[in-house]
């Protein structure tokens, strides 16, 4: 009967208060000590099965014993995305405000698929996405008072899929369902892999997904000329151009596709134009980076991940669309048990018709709390600080003749590599693979890689909430020491 936990009830306010305080203390201590963990988990596959019993306990255990197991068995298998020494992939921001919003959402724990299931959830989502759209200076067509509006998806991959389905069904209503095999989707070879996955799910033939080649001469951006050529060729072959995904801040190098020029091409051919700004959209709340969105007025849909670089705990992917009816026609189902007066009268938004699942969490709460508890000026400062730290790292790399910068830094990602005396490309790639493994296996930092024009490139992205200049300088020293070891050997 340890701590009276044999009598733990399903939901009791006093037990929640007692255990909730312990959990908050545990999480606060985790953040206090986060720098003491190896950033990249160092465990071997299958490690956890050896540490945990084969079956669930018949009798209840105490929270203390569970948290002890978290400390000794779970945390060693965690890669610490919130560590100040995390420089891999793109960030996944936590914050006090985001956490509090997540906690409140979990506490209320409602399932807001339609307006009537919790009016505040739907209406707050519409309001908070209008706030964010205005911060980004998105066209008024994307605001909830017009024919479009915003909806929070789980991830950018989901956002891309739902707008591709909307585009597909819109065209098939015009040309007939039998034309599915003739639909063509376009992106660049730098477009996120979620485009290919969305095509697989939407029934677009893999050979009809055109990933157009990019090059160093225009910083790996999608060339309007190559898009026009590909479309002309497809039209001449009797195919139907359907959808273009352009990117603001590609994963490999944060390339920015030329929205205005691409948008004019899509208008000419009646192609749905989607803009994926999952990572870099956050930077565009700063006036000095907003120009990267010039041409977004040509887009049919626009997406950014608040859970990447906007201090909003995962998951929270903001999608705006100009024509909500296209989305609703593709995704709406209304079985008898979901019918209600407000929905039947058409006076409300039912977000179940804007997404793949029926159920949805109260995610707007945390975005609302982030915007209110930090304010726009602090959010802008937060973004600028990371970009300045990335610039600091870039300057350090540029001062060391053993290294080279491989792509222009646009936001907070630096693409670089070690360039040994033997400049055989295969050998250089091998050395950089080994350099990546060496720094990651040290446990001191975590970075990732990409390949650009056949070059194996190290990606160093600044974006964790706790990262300071000392972490960036410490990371650079680690690279320098590892490089010296490699060159000596």
How does this model look, in words?
- By secondary structure, this protein is α/β, with parallel strands linked by helices.
- It folds into two domains: 101-371, Aspartate Aminotransferase, domain 2 (3-Layer(aba) Sandwich), CATH 3.40.640; 378-453 and 470-488, Aspartate Aminotransferase, domain 1.
- 42% of the residues lie in helices and 12% in strands.
- The chain contains 14 helices and eleven strands.
- The chain has helices at 13-32, 63-74, 96-108, 119-135, 156-175, 194-202, 224-236, 259-269, 306-309, 324-331, 341-344, 364-398, 425-441, 469-488, and strands at residues 149-153, 183-188, 209-212, 240-247, 272-276, 301-305, 317-321, 403-407, 413-418, 448-452, 455-461.
- A seven-stranded mixed sheet has the order 1-7-6-5-4-2-3, sandwiched between helices.
- Helix 7 packs parallel to helix 8 (259-269).
- The longest helix has 35 residues, at 364-398.
- It starts with 12 loop residues before the first helix and ends with a helix.
- Mean pLDDT is 93; it is low at 1-5.
């Amino acid at each position: 009967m340890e701590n009276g936990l044999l009598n733990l009830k399903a939901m009791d306010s006093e037990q929640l208060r007692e255990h909730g305080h312990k959990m908050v203390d545990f999480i606060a201590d985790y953040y206090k000590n986060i720098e003491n963990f190896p950033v990249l988990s160092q465990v071997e596959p299958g490690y956890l099965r050896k540490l945990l019993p084969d079956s669930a306990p018949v009798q209840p255990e105490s929270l203390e014993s569970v948290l002890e197991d978290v400390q000794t068995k779970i945390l060693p298998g965690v890669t610490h995305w919130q560590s100040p020494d995390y420089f891999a992939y793109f960030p996944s921001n936590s914050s006090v405000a985001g956490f509090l919003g997540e906690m409140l959402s979990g506490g209320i724990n409602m399932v807001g698929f339609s307006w009537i299931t919790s009016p505040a959830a739907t209406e707050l989502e519409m309001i908070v996405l209008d706030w964010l759209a205005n911060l980004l200076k998105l066209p008024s067509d994307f605001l909830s008072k017009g024919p479009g509006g915003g909806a929070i998806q789980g991830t950018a991959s989901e956002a891309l899929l739902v707008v591709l389905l909307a585009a597909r069904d819109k065209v098939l209503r015009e040309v007939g369902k039998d034309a599915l095999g003739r639909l063509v989707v376009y992106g660049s070879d730098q477009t996120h892999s979620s485009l290919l996955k969305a095509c697989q799910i939407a029934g677009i033939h893999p050979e009809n997904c055109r990933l157009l080649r990019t090059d160093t001469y225009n910083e790996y951006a999608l060339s309007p000329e190559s898009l026009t050529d590909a479309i002309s060729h497809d039209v001449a072959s009797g195919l139907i151009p359907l959808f273009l995904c352009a990117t603001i801040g590609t994963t490999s190098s944060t390339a920015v596709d030329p929205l205005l020029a691409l948008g004019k091409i899509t208008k000419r051919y009646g192609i749905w134009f989607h803009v994926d700004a999952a990572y870099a959209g956050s930077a565009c709340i700063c006036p000095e980076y907003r120009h990267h969105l010039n041409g977004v007025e040509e887009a049919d849909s626009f997406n950014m991940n608040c859970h990447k670089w906007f201090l909003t705990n995962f998951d929270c992917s903001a999608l705006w669309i100009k024509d909500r009816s296209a989305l609703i026609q593709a995704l709406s189902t209304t079985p008898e048990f979901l019918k209600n007066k407000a929905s039947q009268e058409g006076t409300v938004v039912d977000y179940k018709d804007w997404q793949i699942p029926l159920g949805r969490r109260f995610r707007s709460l945390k975005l609302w709390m982030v915007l209110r508890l930090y304010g726009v000026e602090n959010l802008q400062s937060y973004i600028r600080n990371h970009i300045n730290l990335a610039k600091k790292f870039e300057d350090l790399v540029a001062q060391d003749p053993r290294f080279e910068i491989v792509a222009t830094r646009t936001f907070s990602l630096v693409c670089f590599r070690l360039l040994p005396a033997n400049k055989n490309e295969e050998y250089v790639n091998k050395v950089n693979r080994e350099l990546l493994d060496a720094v990651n296996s040290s446990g001191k930092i975590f970075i990732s890689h990409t390949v650009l024009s056949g070059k194996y490139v190290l990606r160093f992205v600044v974006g964790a909430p706790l990262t300071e200049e000392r972490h960036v300088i410490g990371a650079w020293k680690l690279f320098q020491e590892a490089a010296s070891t490699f060159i000596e050997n």
